[in-house]
Each structure stands twice: as structure tokens, then as C-alpha cells.
Amino acid sequence: MRTLIWGKTFVRAIERIIKKHPALKNDIAETLSLLQENPFASRQAEREAGGFLGV
Hints:
This protein is mostly helical and 55 residues long.
């Protein structure tokens, strides 16, 4: 299990999100817990870039 280090800006941002959307509190806690347990879980996978990239 890894230790997450939260900066002041992150904590304030999460508090603002929870204040505006209280229903997301459990989802945020679950996601952070999953990130702490296994940062490479498939649920945490980033989405691929889509569309024209100008190459």
C-alpha cells in the first residue's frame, strides 16, 4: 500500500467539489482508496487521445 501525500491546493479543491456536489463524496473516497491500494488498476487507466492531432 502506498502513502498519498495531499497538497493544500488538492485538499481545498476536493473540499470545494464536495461542498458543491455532496453525492460525490463516496465516489471520491473510493477512488482515492483504490489509488492508494493499486495505482495501476484498470479503473484508473487514462483515456486515449482522440481526434485529429495535427500530425
